[in-house]
């Protein structure tokens, strides 16, 4: 879609963009949402793709993902051995409601910053205990836990002009066992609910992440695999207003799915492997 309010495009921003940020600016990476509908408040686009941020930087301690990393690039990533939970990277890419054209343009950071309930990059990074590196317009930097970034439907903690620079997934999370469940109304439809659980090898802990069915990620943490009643009670304790409503599912339907899948997950990860 033509953005007829845009009067300027910054093709080569400063290495650390933001110092000359103005009201009406918009960061441009993949642009798959930006160009999908009118943006009446946008006056200038700041193109981040020319900054050539590294897409994927694995090391012995974890994996750094550049905010401008394309979904296609993440999907094709071959993780080093010893990271069983790295399978979630590909699984989460395949949870996109998107064509191959979108995969070749959309970015990890763009999906996160859109902060929609069904954003699979949010699901993935929250489940893997990731942190986000944020750059502010005054040159300062802060780190935010992925689980604390999204605060509502299409809402997050970014300040005006602040930008997501990268995502860091710790190696400890990538070495965990995991399982996931996802429900859609149609085979290639938007997620009604997307749940991921991880467990540390040779330990009793369980981390259950619920997204798509809730307005922000809900993380249920257990020191040991709970019994069925405890798991169900924890899901029932999620406030009613947190469950999301849209054409893909009512809050009651999504709560029902969460409880159903939680029991499957609890049983699957409850073994001592």
From TrEMBL:
SUPFAM superfamilies: FAD-binding/transporter-associated domain-like (SSF56176)
InterPro entries: Diverse_Substr_Oxidored (IPR051312), FAD-bd_PCMH (IPR016166), FAD-bd_PCMH-like_sf (IPR036318), FAD-bd_PCMH_sub2 (IPR016169), Mopterin_DH_FAD-bd (IPR002346)
Identification of the protein by name: FAD binding domain-containing protein
Top-level taxon of origin: Bacteria
UniProt xrefs under PROSITE patterns: FAD_PCMH
Source species: Nocardia albiluteola
Classification via Gene3D superfamilies: 3.30.465.10
Domain FAD-binding PCMH-type, residue spans: 1-174
